[in-house]
């Protein structure tokens, strides 16, 4: 990612942009994220979910019958949000991008390990070439979201910083 650019319209004059490594640490440490997808009729769909930040991308999974999966078949454009709901403390992060399905056991196993490392045995997955697998027949598809834009909202002092990938 490039260096963050503070939007002076939305922040305190003393605010400084967090480093990209600090932003990645926030994304990595978050336990809950909100995923926004777009329905075929254009209405947004927002849902909380777990995920991992791995190799500079957000990763999540979804079952084939879930609304977010249906939406991704129509449009892969997503926004992922995490942060706190307080006004005076914490940092909120929005990752915008295009969700890409991950296939291939060799690509999926490291993500499965990341889920288990972060969330424990309740999220222990195996993988085959199509997605995650477990003992009860669940077969979620796995997606990654390489960021096209990341917006960070600091709250003490207030600031809005935008990051874009280097071109």
Automatic annotation (TrEMBL):
Official protein name in the record: Pyridoxamine 5'-phosphate oxidase family protein
Organism: Nocardioides mangrovi
Keywords for this protein: Oxidoreductase
Domain Pyridoxamine 5'-phosphate oxidase N-terminal: 22-123
Gene3D superfamilies: Electron Transport, Fmn-binding Protein, Chain A (2.30.110.10)
Highest taxon listed in the record's lineage: Bacteria
SUPFAM superfamilies: FMN-binding split barrel
């Amino acid at each position: 990612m490039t260096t963050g650019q503070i939007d002076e319209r939305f922040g305190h004059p003393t605010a400084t942009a967090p480093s990209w490594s600090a932003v990645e640490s926030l994304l990595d440490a978050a336990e809950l994220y909100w995923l926004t997808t777009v329905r075929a009729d254009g209405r947004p769909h927002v849902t909380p979910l777990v995920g991992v930040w791995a190799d500079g991308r957000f990763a999540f999974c979804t079952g084939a019958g879930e609304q977010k999966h249906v939406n991704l078949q129509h449009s892969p454009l997503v926004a992922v949000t995490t942060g706190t709901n307080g006004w005076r403390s914490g940092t909120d992060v929005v990752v915008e991008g295009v969700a890409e399905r991950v296939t291939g056991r060799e690509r999926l196993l490291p993500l499965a390990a990341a889920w288990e490392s972060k969330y424990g045995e309740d999220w222990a997955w195996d993988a085959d070439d199509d997605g995650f697998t477990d003992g009860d027949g669940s077969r979620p598809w796995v997606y990654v979201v390489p960021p096209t834009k990341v917006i960070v909202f600091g709250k003490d002092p207030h600031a809005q910083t935008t990051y874009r990938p280097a071109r």
